[in-house]
Design brief:
By secondary structure, the protein is mainly beta. Helices cover 9% and strands 39% of the residues.
Length: 276
Amino acid sequence: MKEPLVMGESALERDSRLRQVDDGVLEGEVSLGWCIGDAANGGYALSLGLRALAAVLPLPDPLSSTAHYVRPLAHGPVRIEVETMRIGRTLARGVARMLQDGDECVRVIAVFGTLPQVPAEPLYAEPCDILLAPIADCTPLVLNTPGGLTAHVRARFDTRYDPGSVGWARGTPTGRPVLSAWVRAEDGSEPDRFLLPVVADALPCTAFDLAVEQRVLTVELTVHQRAVPAPGWLACSYRSRLVADGFMEEDGEFWDSTGRLVGMSRQLAILPRQNP
């Protein structure tokens, strides 16, 4: 049974609660609500590791974070061991090892600092060029993974897909590994430094529009955060430049409601074996 929300708490905060059991050691529960099948979504696993690091490091915001997925992190108890690498005046670095039954499942390496609430005028900034229709013209969908695996994590978001995206879900794969959508938390909470890593990996893989019909497994995910998102919808874009030899990379961009680029991601994923 899910624990109730505390006043002002988001669903992600509730489902990421951790308790410190020793110096540098925290324990919690991998919530089924953020899984694909019984395994934690990669972005949620990264976010959970970042919460453990935030409990130990003296600076609040993950500026750059990378997760390496060693084995599936299953729904159930998790132990997180945090190691401080270095603490400076403006940056703090640490490593979080996420374990189940004594086996390491995910390793997170991160650099923390302080994100600007009101960013300074940039030295250079490209304008948002995402091909994304207005929200009213986009389609609200909660999509599972081809092959029938339930993507619980996608129900945690209100997602409005651009009409040119997720053709596979309509029975007509586009043949182009690109996706764009408007995204916000289903519970109405505003985007923050722990939600953004989940958004980076929660939407369907762009390879599905290449007629890939099974779950694609993330090997490594990196997220860069550049500013605290303004309240409201995130405009999200994902694409791959190369899908070959059983692997793909996927790049993400995340723009807030004011039109600022607040985050970027890149992941390497392994494709399911294709029948000859």
